[in-house]
Amino acid sequence: MARKDTRPFQVAIDGPAASGKSTTAKMVAQRLGFDYIDTGAFYRCVTLAALSKGIDPSKPSQASQISNLAQSSQIGLKTVFSNSSSSLPTTRVFLDKKDVSSDIRTETVSKHVSAVAAIGPVREAVLQKVRDMGATSASTSQESNSGRAGLVMDGRDIGTVVLPNADLKIFLVADSRVRAERRLQELAKSGRKEEGLDLETVQKDLERRDELDRTREASPLRKADDAVELDTSHLTIEGQVDAIVQEVYRRQKAASSSTSSQ
Ligand SMILES: Nc1ncnc2c1ncn2[C@@H]1O[C@H](COP(=O)(O)OP(=O)(O)O)[C@@H](O)[C@H]1O
Ligand SMILES: Nc1ccn([C@@H]2O[C@H](COP(=O)(O)OP(=O)(O)O)[C@@H](O)[C@H]2O)c(=O)n1
Fold this sequence. Notes:
The protein is of the alpha/beta class and 262 residues long.
């Protein structure tokens, strides 16, 4: 799609759970000098806020309390990029000023987050917060390698709802067994693996969450018509990052030659 204005180059990355979205998005942002927003972290924060108040997100009667929490919670993200292209950027997540980066990644939060994200008013509140953050980052973005600022956002509805005019939309997929193996390994490595948690359970939970995300009424998980699908099952992280970075360069070049020929 040719770009009509000078707004930052936008990359939207969507896909099912543990398909590699946030790792890839962060590394793409680092390579290009773009900003990064992890929208899943917002839904995880609302879920954590509800659970810590003793609210059970699986009960539909609690939806309005959870929606109020989504509105009133203050959510912040801080991504620290590295100068070395081989080291992974880290994102710290703050809920009402408290660092909850680790607390929002537990299996308990993962188990409940899709029910929370299916509540319409919760999505409206999160969408507003994400748009506000996107607008702030657009004005403070680093200059990209190609002299342009940009933004990478990942989630479930970025290409369809949050950034419907994104310059590049990627839909990341991977076999659910492979995704479960990667998620289990990640939990073990970070010390967040709960006692007795096995591969079957992780795979079933990812599949259950994907089903909820795909079938909900409000902004379901789906590939945007103009998204490029990338299957990461047999790719390395570097391979998938490189494929996206090359596509950004290709589109930037095409957009600047179409502007200069006008
Ligand atoms: N191509 C890949 N090969 C091996 N591991 C990968 C690959 N892509 C992602 N991962 C790992 O899979 C796990 C899940 O990736 P993550 O980026 O958190 O996914 P998502 O944001 O889609 O949930 C992470 O531990 C990440 O390092
Ligand atoms: N844009 C988004 C991002 C996440 N979500 C919800 O938030 C949950 C957690 O997102 P996440 O990106 O942190 O999940 P993982 O793929 O990392 O497990 C998803 O399962 C969705 O239910 C959403 O509905 N819309």
